[in-house]
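RETRY 2/3 - previous attempt timed out on the joint model. Re-submitting the same 611-residue input unchanged.
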Amino acid sequence: MAENKIIVARFRLARCEFMLDVDLTLPGRGVTALFGHSGSGKTTLLRCLAGLEKDPSGFLSVNGDCWQDAQHCLPTHKRPLGYVFQEANLFPHLTVLGNLRYGIQRIPSAKVTDLTSVIDLLGIGHLLNRKPERLSGGERQRVGIARALALNPKLLLMDEPLSALDVQRKNEILPYLERLHDELEIPVIYVTHSPDEVARLADYLVVLEQGTVLAEGGLFNVLTRLDLPISLGEDVGVVLSATIGAIDDAWQLARLDFAGGSLWTRHHGFGVGRTLRVRVLARDVSLAVEHPSLSSIQNILFGVVDAIGDDHHEGLALVRVCVGESVFIARLTKRAASELNIQLGQSLWLQVKSVALLE
Amino acid sequence: MSACNLLVIEFHYIVIYIKIYLIRWDVIVSLTDEDWQALSLTLYLASIVTLLLFVIATPIAWWLARTKLRWKSVIAAVVALPIVLPPSVLGFYLLLAMGPNGVIGYLTQRLHWGTLPFTFEGLVIVSAFYSLPFMVQPLQAAFESIGDKPLEAAATLRASSFDAFFTVIVPLALPGFVSAGILTFAHTVGEFGVVLMVGGNIPGETRVVSVQIFDYVEALEYQQAHKLAGFMLLFSFLLLLVLNSVRLKKQF
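RETRY 2/3 succeeded.
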């Protein structure tokens, strides 16, 4: 049944720094990001979902199966989940293969996923006989993900799988995570404090602060809310779904068509028709009342002001502009907003300085 | 080069051979039947106590390493008591407890086992008490250094706590088990006061090596005492050598 494809989670748990108090209904498919600063309770919430943290009054059901209610609570080892730890947490006394097999040996063989396909998916075939101490951080994390997936779980929980890695290693793993995002049928709950990972991987976003839910909803919607910039800081921006509509070989540019308009960006080798995520940061969008005729910025869109809000600095404002069905956010100084006399419902021009292709 | 090296190696072998020969000649052959009896009784006692304590002390150490209860320090102090208590004090209390009017004595009499003082079984019980901290403390330290994380990983991989203990904790704590086992064994071999208090000095039943040496010294048979003492010295040294090499292996 379609309405059963949800995760319902209610937890109240006192911690010294905060009180976790959440009542969430999350989609039963796709990647849900739990986003927040350290101490916001996101990892505690993930541990509650896994049963590693006990809340006797909690409630959890996953796609129609009740894992915890007032009467009973499945212990962690009886929950059909996969858990990826922050620092992989592989067993040091077992080889990579031993780690992968540890869980498989403990579930009925009918439920085991095809181990070779998981090994291929994460590209760890050449590491199977090594001990974890002889793996790099990135390799360890890939083995950790494979170990969780090998159990064919009904829910995949990931606790900041990239946070312990440097930029290079992150970039080594992100493509694998994006593949997971495209190929996995099961719900994934992904804890992170990185806006970049959220923009790349999440379909649904839960913003936590001090143990409570500040905002939740589809990624594209939550990112366009102006009352949340505190959590995002410099990274306020929107994510759009776009399709490559044309490629200009002469200038090495690609046209990204989104609902309501199109943007030109550098050609990255993606073919026409490919659907991508595009991230446009508020700081890369400027506003003009008249059409800017001579400008180095060539991506000019026409839109209507939808909302005006404060930014994290007193001198700055965020302006949300609808371009067709899509929404952009621009950051400008309050003085500029005052001089341009920006009003709700006003039509104006947006100049988009840069966009980031995410997939 | 090889000729010279070979000579050196050969020389080493000769020295080792002479040493082994000397030990044999001087000590091993000249030990009396009574010495052998005391030695085998001591090793038998130490083996039994070590095995017994693996079973008893592992849950205690595990509990001490994992519990967050405040009165855990009380239990930890009770377990550690034999380290500071004079063996005669411990022996005295255990003697009373195992006697006809003691708690343990009452129990053993109800079970028609008689009383335990001056028997081998009694010796096993007091030795277990006396060596308990030497088993518990290394195990507790090993368990504490492993932490929660491997257990949590095992739980998310469908392993119950019991399963995870044997498949994750025991392999990870193996150097701790080896240390604890060797320390317990060596400590049991070396005890004297407690044995004398509770076990007395019955040949083949409770007369262990340390008591035997004491007997020799009392009777001014220094030659015999030397041989047995030398044997124990060598034995203890080799045991510690093994222990340290295990620790080194753990470090690298």
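Residues 305 and 343 of chain A are 7 Å apart (CA to CA). Closing ticket.
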